[in-house]
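Input protein
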Amino acid sequence: MSKKQQHRNKVLDDLPLGKGLGWDSIYFIGIGGIGMSALARYFYIHNFHVSGYDKTPSPITKSLEKLGITIHFNDAIDAVPKQIFDKQKTLIVYTPAIPKEHSELNYFIEHDYTIYKRSEILGKITENTFCFAVAGTHGKTTTSTILGHILKESGINATSFLGGIAENYNSNLILGGDEISVVEADEYDRSFLQLSPNIACITSMDADHLDIYGEADALEQSFIDFSNKVSDTLFVKKGLLIKGITYGIEENADYDVKNILIKNGTYFFDVYTPSEIIKNIELNLSGKHNVLNTVAALAMANKYGVSLQTIAKALKTFKGIQRRFTYKIKTDNLVLIDDYAHHPTEINAVADAIKELYPHQRSLAVFQPHLFSRTRDFADDFAKSLAKFDELILLDIYPAREKPIDGITSDWLLSKVDLVNKKITSKELLVKNILVSKATVIVMIGAGDIGEMVNMVKENLLNRVA
């Protein structure tokens, strides 16, 4: 047996689902998803043959292909690499975002392949590691990435599976050993109930994914169920209706942030813990919501045994996450920000951060709604959050996994927004409509393909001022 095969067997033996099966190949259906691609990287680095399907090429799929991972973009069984058809040596992993009629997935089901959801594979990894899990309807990616960075900088050999591209590592995987994991505990499809967390936090419990849960009460119950799975310590944002060690900003929480000061876009603050105080922490992220995300990560690392002084040193070097209040242009006269926000609470956080940092400048939000069902369920809340900007441009709703819902359109959403300067535009006319705006702070918001348009907007804005 080769050393590669021995190593593959050890990785799979560490997963209860893999004992004795001797898999060589793992095939990902939906490999371009942010969570799927992190797992693909992980198994590729552990010497498995990794390949997959995705609907469209993207920066993520291109980065996987550069590693040597084979990907195709048409749903066709004859496009699947030949070695995948040795089903005794192949594991199929899929994301619930894949439609039920997907022909490749149905082929593997009908031919009795070993098939797991992404969340099940991640769950098996956490069974055999000391697991840090970050749950919440908002803030998961930022909090888990900060935590992963703290552990890495502290010399703790953790592997972190992230829901965004960490700027420090240009990856959604911070590779470490096989004994400690950091994961996002995703509430979509109740995926986080597959995990085995030791230390966890819950950042928020706002209603979302009502296409899955139906009612907000069912979503809240799933968070309660998740909290009951935590074997060691649970941290919760102060005010949430779940018991745990609390954190907050000037809320008399167990881990309490005080004395926030902003200098040139950098946040400085003190943290009071149950046993000590750390002063003058420096954070190069914008918005008080990111201060909250930071103190959650700080609390989890501190509980594990990392000193507050070591944490503060690590935070100074944290560069952020792509598409989380990411500056694409930052000058005295023009600012362009890219952000993944796709829920009213997240848009509120972006709007509040802009008002805090640029109180005297005119703001323009360019928003691409994500999912027809989310737009329908939170239309009034979207309208209120979007009205916090001075100007608004809406793109058509990004459907993702959904089919259109009669009457739910961006025009319908726009009619609810109490703003004078608001309009609908197409992708083709987006740049033109942005260029005629007098706004000096422009933020592009959404979880669809709006992120792929940001660099084009940046180039045209810079040409305008050149």
